[in-house]
Amino acid sequence: CGNRFEFRAVGSSQCCAMPVAICNTMFAAGMAHLSGLLESGMPLRDAVAKVYRENREIIFTGNGYSKEWPKEAAKRGLPNLNTTPLAAQQFNSYKVKSIFKEMGIFEPEEVDARAELMFESYNSLLAIEAQTLIRMVETGIIPACAKDLAIYKDAPELAGERPELYKSIVAELSRLKSVLKSVPHDDVSDEAFYFCSSVKPQMEVVRSLVDKAEGLMQADLYPYPTYEALCYSHWV
Description:
The protein is built from nine helices and no strands. By secondary structure, the protein is mainly alpha-helical.
């Protein structure tokens, strides 16, 4: 079936109250629009048909998780807010503010405040995650790489791609540090978009290299629990 709203077991730092409030606002605004048509004298069938024509582009009965759906949505002129900064920016748009005010939920200034908190929270979390990644790689992964590489000092031909891979980790970590130093702090939204477009991709680069190193490194040298250990260690 197509896209739908689902609220599963969220983390302890998360709360479903705001998403539920947004869904209820959407429903209330839609019903208010339909009610207005009926109160103006339009027959029920015509009112429903009009609402359907106005919103038919959002109806999709295919696989909402497929790669084809975003492409199809773009053809239909539908937005694809696939990052937190984009979603927070849209939340603070004039159209959204107007709906909140019309429904008696938020004043425009309250929307501004909440959007700023969204950006600040995102920026803080990404900064902490980036710094944590740097510290984990510097204090755990790189020393483990050095120890693993030392095993092959007398037989370098057996080291395979380890020397190049381990050097790449150090080089990309250095790039991450450089990117992190260039974070703009003048505006929370600009900072959020920078974290999303520059810091996160570089974190992914470092992470992918470390994942690859995990598959090559001597098992007892890897400094952190693997997914396999986390998932299956209690069965041993």
